[in-house]
Amino acid sequence: MAFPVQRPRRLRRTEGLRRMVRETTLQPSDFIYPLFVIEGRGERRPVPSMPGIFNLSVDAAVEEAKAARSLGVPAVIVFGIPDRKDAEGSRAYAADGIVQRALRELKSAVPELQLVADVCLCEYTDHGHCGVVARGEVQNDATLPLLARMAVTCAQAGADIVAPSDMMDGRVRAIRRALDESGLAETPVLAYSAKYASGFYGPFREAAQSTPQFGDRRGYQMDPGNVREALKEVALDLEEGADVVMVKPALAYLDVIARVKERFDVPVAAYNVSGEFSMLKAAARAGWVDGDRLMLEILTSIKRAGADLILTYHALEAARLLGG
Ligand code: PBG
């Protein structure tokens, strides 16, 4: 039975009707808000390429976390930017490192907010790579114990979830074991499973001061042409003990999100990364697009593709628009 009996426009005529049949709706509880934490006090330094995003000292991060909570955003992901960097990224896994201190303060100031710790060495190494380097290459197996130590020290400091973003093989297993052996069997792992070697991370590397000093990340992050390999990465991470898997970036990889969602029965996260954010902000500032409208449309598309959780720099402004 088709036209004239079928008239799909009937259900589009008014906002009241559209609202009743909308298949995907956003809520503040869908979002995880990234925080970049630096040393010092009272610091709120704008990130030039990311309007509205700041490098925050711990006290300012606490204020930002309170804002997130009051808007109904349930979680933040914390990135640490240390004062000193070295070849082994030793400030990544020091009990008194910047990220551990931030987690401790955030947990005591805003206990009901869920704290995700990004586990990776790139903000802490002087060469800017995500693992230890020897003979000009990132060494997979030598990096694993360092990531495991970082995960444990972050969980001990108050992280509710640890999120490895380094793309070393076997890191989920190493982290799961180390957590279990440290009495942290209840701490979930959110794995950046399908993380692509992407040009969309440019502004983040400015925000987190983590640009590689030589070469690039193509030897460990995924090739943008691959989707079968993304499914393999997800399967391996689940075998190793991941609780939640992530696809990153989001917007240029919606098909990957959809495929992962279809294949696996676990929560799927997607990272609406810095370049996606900055592109939209730049176009909106130029007056070329309606920034708020595009923001909600993009976030809806990520959720519609299958993401249960969306890491996004838009979290607070989107929550505000959604009435959080
Ligand atoms: C690595 C990490 C990166 C991002 C999150 N975790 C950067 C990278 O791989 O270079 C990127 C996030 C973004 O672009 O918003 N610790």
At a glance:
Helices cover 39% and strands 17% of the residues. The protein is an alpha/beta fold and 324 residues long.
Describe the 3D structure.
This protein has 324 residues and is α/β, with parallel strands linked by helices. It has one domain: Aldolase class I (TIM Barrel). It has 11 helices and 12 strands. The strands form 2 sheets. Strands 1, 2, 3, 4, 5, 8, 9, 10, 11 and 12 form a 10-stranded mixed beta sheet that branches. A two-stranded antiparallel sheet has the order 6-7. The model has no long low-confidence stretch (mean pLDDT 97). The structure holds ligand PBG. Residues 118, 120, 122, 165, 201, 204-205, 210, 217, 273-274 line the site of ligand PBG.
